[in-house]
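Can't paste images in this forum, so I'm doing it all in text. The chain is below; anyone willing to post the predicted structure tokens underneath?
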Amino acid sequence: MKKLTAIGLNEAQSKTLAEKLNMLLANYSIFYQNARGFHWNIKGEKFFELHLKFEELYNDLLLKIDEVAERILTLGYAPEHNYSMYAKNASIKESERISDGMEAVSQVLQAFQTVIILQREILNLATEAGDEGTNALMSDYIRLQEKMVWMYSAFLKK
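Text version of the structure:
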């Protein structure tokens, strides 16, 4: 018989999910810090619009960071919390100081693509494991972020 976690999920599948969620946590943490940098350093004609948008973005990412960390704990594992581990495990890389709005928005779009792809992978793993909690979280994130991709792309006229 397979070993089950405290919430009734297969232990091996839960471990794999926790590892992938820690990868997502790393990517969100780097994305968050990049968004703060965009917010602080933005200049130019779209300053007021983008300054607010980047603040909205990093506030949303901060909530997601906490939710992902708590989901890892719910699965029975520990969330990573060191930036050295985030930098090592994230596909999103730290941005340079960027003051150009169009370049910042392009980097936001690249970061969304990275996290959406990873979240779809986690969603599939969660479905296989019967993990409705992780499944629901990923579904919600993907739906909202796909809309954000559309909106940021429209801003860039893509």
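Helices lie at 11-41, 47-74, 83-89, 101-129, 132-155. The domain at 11-155 is CATH 1.20.1260.10 (Ferritin).
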